[in-house]
Design goal:
Largest sheet: 5 strands, mixed
Strand order of the largest sheet: 4-3-5-12-6
Number of helices: 11
Order of helices and strands: HHHEEHEHEHEEEHHEHEHEEEH
Strand content: 15-25%
Low-confidence stretches: none
Structural class: alpha/beta
Amino acid sequence: MNIKQIDLRLLRSFLTVARTGNFVRASEALSITQSALSQQMRELAGHLDQALFEKRGRSLILTKFGNGLLQKIEPLLGQIEEALMQSLDDSRNIIGTLRVGATNTYSKTIALPACMELLKEYPSLKIELQELPAQKVLTELMGGTIDVAIIPQDYQFPDLEWSSLITEQFSVIGNIKMIEELPNTITLKYLAKYELAALNRQFLMRQKIDAQARKEGASLEIRMEASSMGDLIEIAKSGKLLALGSSIALLKEKQLRSKEIEGELLIRTAAVCWRKTKFVNSAMIAFQEKAQEISSSLEAEIKQRSARFY
């Protein structure tokens, strides 16, 4: 074993391969050739006298030793990188690049506003924001191409840390007249007599709606399925259908109103999450704090709007 020959370059490459699971994506992320990356991994394994990966089909799986190494060095590398960047700037400014992922609704209402405030406060900070389906956000997060994410907390992974932001009850959404005609207490069984729009079945929200409908013995007439809350809002604006979805997404929509739907399954909590082994740097902490502030404002706005409506 010759650990004195191991440098940050080898460890950073190992970390990238471990997170992406293959040399193709890792070499692209590192901007080096696959052959150069393969050579680096052979060099690192040689210095440690241990196998780091084993092949399964086209994927690379960490060995027990490789997984243990990953858990130990990832937070340390993050700490070293932040220390090196801050040494170039002796102010309290946050520098570097923060990579954020979020689902459609949370991207527009929480993540993007939080990012914009951070950019104003920290002129040296760069941010990459991706709006993706929740499963894709999780894949990128676990692969190391996203640092921090905002998604529903229903996705429980043992390798993730969570910080809750805001909890909402699913709502029925429509134009002012349509919503005013509905009773204050609404269930899916009651809504079964209306023509409805909802997210398609790949979304957890839709899956929870379907599960609640089965529980109530309600047969919903879903006339149109959409791939984002933004599309559902446009459908609701037409006045043709009532939409089932998130009231958070329509806070700036003056043409639309919503009423909560009763049901123990019709609830979700937005949360900031990151990998447990990830070093939580200054940018991630600042993003989490901004997201919490914005979520608190959203919660207050929802309550105020609901009080005016009822």
